Amino acid sequence: MTHSKHVRERRMLRLLISVFASVQPQRNLKASVVYRSLLSASSPPALAVSGFVLKPTMEHKLYRPPPDVRGMTCLDKEAFTQTISVPALRVPTRVLNKVVKSLKKSTIQRPGLPRVLQEKEESSDFRLVLLDPHRVTSPTSFSEAEAEALRSFSVSQELQYYDLRLTYDNLKSEEVLEAVLPQGQDVTSSFSRVGHIAHMNLRDHQLPYKNLIGQVIMDKNPGVTCVVNKTNTIDSTYRNFKMEMLAGEENMVAKVRENGVAYEFDFSRVYWNPRLSTEHQRVVQLVKRGDTVFDVFAGVGPFAIPAARSGANVVANDLNPESYRWLQHNCKLNKVESKVRTFNLDGRAFIQGPVKQELPALLKNKAAIHVVMNLPALALDFLDAFRGLLHQEHVCEASLPTVHCYGFSKDNEPETDVVKRASSSLGFPVEERCSVHFVRNVAPNKDMMCVTFTLPKEVLFSSDHEDTESSREPAPKRQKCEEATDST
After folding, report:
1. Of 189, 276, 287, 192, which is closest to residue 241 (Cα–Cα)?
2. Which of the chain's ends, N or C, has fewer CB atoms near its CB within 10 Å?
3. How far apart are CA 22 and CA 24, in angstroms?
4. What is the maximal distance between C-alpha atoms in the chain?
């Protein structure tokens, strides 16, 4: 079993968080920012997947909201309008583009605001270049390179001042929410993006402002036309959760692309997590053309469909009737319906039914067999379904299925924990024959892990047939198996 460097770093992070929590019990703004920074620093770059948005806290206070917007629960955009004075340079139009390029770090950067304006006198020879008042407070504020550029273009460093009208449209979502929510409370604009849907997980203190928050998220994120809030934990049976509309159109049928594959589904009735894009890709890349993949908890197909596109034969299952329906739909959408056979069964029934029926013939071939079990809340408990699944046959070790089983762990040693639980469910130790991959941190002190191992023949074949079947196996067949094993 491998012990990754990342898992060791995760343990240290947990220790830091626990120490931090003990001295900073209040979930104030500063605490949440530090916590998010710790998580961000500890996460591998690959986990920064398409669909997940986490925006930084404002560093500069260019905008200082009117006090009367504090506590607003119904969005009044006009109330955020404010006029501020900003520095500017008077620049000849003949060198305007060169000056703007040279001062790109010092010019004002605001949504919907131009950096260059016409002078009041409407002179065609000069323009005003607006500057960031937190970077430029006097003619000496320019860097040496900027000052040299201005001199080379014969532009005076004398500052003009311009009365700039800031409106709601010029503000960032963090600024609006920070102005509205109670002072000192955590302000977040993080959400998961699923097609046109922004999925939030608001905390209790944010709920009185939920509709305003939803409207702000929709206004500030082009393409988002629906904002929802999760109202309970994921149901372990169908892996979906209840949600409430915060803003926008009540259209839950999302269209997304992940790793070049198109998916469509009703987000309110199936499970989809955009943060698992990298993990889907990692496992699918292990699958070769001609391999067989059994996807026990397939959902709408994020493992099954890419595997089929890569040339594998896929047998996919999901208990949720809606997931099963969208799985079939997505197979047709991606033109792999001939490569994927679908079932609507309980995971245990799928293993003891279609998997059991298919395995004997597959074990006689050289092509690899993969079993994917992505139901982290329960999948480890389903491993006992493989006990004595088949009658004893002599097979090549290389032909035995590779299992990729997911699980959550709150243990301080998450990799050890999931392996121990897998061994317990199998009734056979796999500590020395598995690898563990850290997938992502789900919550403080809760990790999602993937344990991968070759299914032991001691588990797969029923022991009551072991001696009799072994004695009947012809010597030439045993030898052929050994030769095939040596050649792989």
Report:
1. 192
2. C
3. 6
4. 102
Query: In this structure, are strands 160-166 and 82-92 parallel, antiparallel, or unpaired?
Result: antiparallel
Nearest in space to 204 (alpha carbons), one of 175, 223, 225, 230: 230
Q: Going by C-beta distance under 8 Å and a sequence separation of 6 or more, which residues neighbour residue 419?
A: 1, 430, 431, 434, 436, 451
Question: From CA 320, how far away is CA 240, in angstroms rounded?
Answer: 9
Kindly report, residue by residue over 407-461, the tens digit of the pLDDT: 999 999 999 999 999 999 999 999 999 999 999 999 889 999 999 999 999 999 9
Q: For residue 47, count other CB atoms closer than 10 A to its CB.
A: 18
Q: Is the pLDDT of residue 479 over 70?
A: no
Q: Length of the chain, please?
A: 488
Cα–Cα distance measured from residue 376 to residue 358, given in angstroms and rounded to the nearest whole number: 25
Cβ atoms of 409 and 2 closer than 8 Å: no
Q: How far is CA 322 from CA 196, 275, 296, 325, 359, in A?
A: 20, 21, 16, 5, 27
Q: In what order do the strands lie in the sheet with 434-443?
A: 340-343, 313-317, 292-295, 369-373, 402-409, 446-454, 434-443
- What residues have CB less than 8 Å from 358, skipping those under 6 apart? 292, 294, 315
pLDDT tens for residues 45-75?
333 333 434 333 334 466 778 888 999 999 9
The alpha-carbon radius of gyration of the chain (Å, integer) is 29
Task: Provide mean pLDDT across the span 297-323.
Answer: 97
**What amino acid is encoded at 23 in this protein?**
V
Cβ neighbours for 283, distance < 8 A, ≥ 6 positions apart: 303, 370, 372, 404, 450
- For the entire predicted model, the pTM comes to 0.74
Backbone conformation region of residue 277, classed left if phi is above 0, alpha if psi is from -120 to 50, else beta = alpha
Angle at 431 between CA 430 and CA 433, to 5 degrees: 65
CA gap 362, 125 in Å, rounded: 79
Q: Count Cβ atoms within 10 A of the Cβ of residue 239 and give its class: 0-12 exposed, 13-18 middle, 19 or more buried.
A: buried
Q: In the prediction, which pLDDT does 59 show?
A: 41
